[in-house]
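The records we work with from here on pair a chain with its fold. These numbers are not coordinates but entries in a learned vocabulary of local backbone shapes. To see the layout at work, look at the sequence and tokens printed below:
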Amino acid sequence: MGARLAIGLIWLLHFLPLAWLAALGRGLGALLWRLAGSRRKVALRNLELCFPEKSVTEREALAREHFGWLGRSFLERGLLWFASPERLQRLVHVKGNVHFAEQSDASVMWLTPHFVGLEWSSPALMLNQSNPGVSVYQTQSNAVFDAQILAGRSRFGQNALFDRQEGIRPVIRLIRQGYAFVNLPDMDFGDKDSAFVPFFGVPACTLLAPGRMAYSLKMKVQPVVITMLPGGRGYEVELEEPWADYPSADAEADALRLNRWLEARIRERPAQYLWVHKRFKTRPPGEPSLY
């Protein structure tokens, strides 16, 4: 019942102007900062590891700002779930070549790291082109929320979604049929098919699959970065130029290339990266937990 009530509230709130919704989201973020103690500690620890040059006060201010963006991302998800395509088109500001996947002779991988506005990649990519897309998702523990999230992500264009537990084979099958692959490459899923690659100078368990898949399937790789804009200004979805130096035959070198690129993008908007994720959870053999 709680999940249904929450979804009902999110539905009601989506009718508000974005500036009002953003203010409520920042308020929710301030509340989460006080109540979500374990996630607050994770965010502060991540920032300590990644920005040791900043003072404790600076890192706390950055973490508080992050929770504000995080609160916004929760409430504004109602727009993605329930708003009309016309309203979404007005809110999303696309920067770069959104038609690259349609124009490319090769299959395309969109690299979409975990900034708080990540969910806004779906309307930007799927409403602005005819090329179908495929992605992998993590099942939510609450079945009601899981069904709603899937329904929201499936609203736009021809968009296939597979549970991570189903493996990669169904994804590869659709890539070979011409689907573009929305790849989220920057989470710690354990040491299987991963390597410890520096991320802000800290060895991070980094997936090797993005480079390996792109290399074996001869894919073109186009990074996509989503930025939530202040107040009621909407969301910027930036599609960079496809990488000329990725992938290579060296999966670890590709993982390092990706991490260095991501570091640079995070430094441009540090409060909007998903610091509440335990990015350094898996450690090299013999090393103690960082959390």
Remarks:
- The chain has two domains: 1-83, 88-271.
